[in-house]
Amino acid sequence: QSLPQQKLLTWLSVLECVEVFAEMGTARVWGEMGRWTIIVLIQLAKAILRLLLLLWYKAGIQTSPPIVPLNREQQQPLHPQDMEDNSSGKDQTYVGRRSSRVVRSLQSTPSLQSRHWGSPQQREESQSRRAEELNQPPTPLGLQETIAESIYITRPLLHLLSLGVWGQRSWKPWLLSAVLDISSLSLLSDLKDLNRRERAELRRRTILLLYYLLRSPFYDRYSEGRILLLLRLLADYVPGVGFVTRPLMDYLPAWQKIYFYNWG
Fold first, then answer.
1. Mean pLDDT, to the nearest integer, of 180-192?
2. Rounded to an integer, what distance in angstroms lies between the CA atom of residue 116 and that of residue 120?
3. What is the distance between the alpha carbons of residues 94 and 99, in angstroms, rounded to a whole number?
4. CB burial of residue 184 (10 Å; 0-12, 13-18, 19+)
5. CA-closest candidate to residue 132, choices 48, 195, 224, 50
6. Between helices 143-166 and 3-51, what is the axis angle to 10°?
7. S-S: 118 plus which of 122, 170, 227, 255, CB 3.0-4.6 Å?
8. Per-residue pLDDT tens for 77-98?
9. How far is the CA of 117 from the CAs of 109, 114, 120, 264, in angstroms?
10. Cα diameter, the chain
11. Alpha-carbon distance 15 to 11, whole Å?
12. Structure pTM?
């Protein structure tokens, strides 16, 4: 990735990390008008950055989060003492004569800072596999797939525009957003030879369609009573589940009002 593309991914990641805090903080300071203003500005900035990555840098299907979180266990460097042992040619493993099981030899036991429970081969294989996944280029998108990804990127802006036109109680913004999400997924379903991250992203988008059960006005008219009844039954009749379901019942109304939790 080029340096400008890395900067765009970084700014996009920062926006996704602070969007909920910005919405809640702005609502506390400037009220509803300020809240919706910051929502529009953040969604507009995210759409511009994603369109630049899609159309200019050919980033393909964009994942969430934009930057893969660092796995510190797999990226942990060797301790200097371990590097000296490796350079001295000591055998790191011992193969059992009867079981053929590979275990670490006592002479090459790593220091406490870099110790892990897997065999050296397993660690090397996982590191090489993860490095290969990160270095895989994005799958080239044709015209149909580019349109589908553009629909997915611009869907939040169209949803906000429809909210401004028809209001929050109307079914039209809910239906418009659902049609755009389903259309994008159906157009991308024909794409073959996706890498692992891209397949995981499409599965994530498919699972997120369940959020429409929790989005207004569907939640207010149909889902709320049934979900609360189910949580109450679980809390009353399943031992131990109440520790999770009762706080969730109290949290759902607050969660449902925050735009970036259920629409962003």
1. 92
2. 9
3. 11
4. buried
5. 195
6. 50
7. 122
8. 544 544 454 444 445 677 777 8
9. 11, 10, 9, 39
10. 76
11. 6
12. 0.79
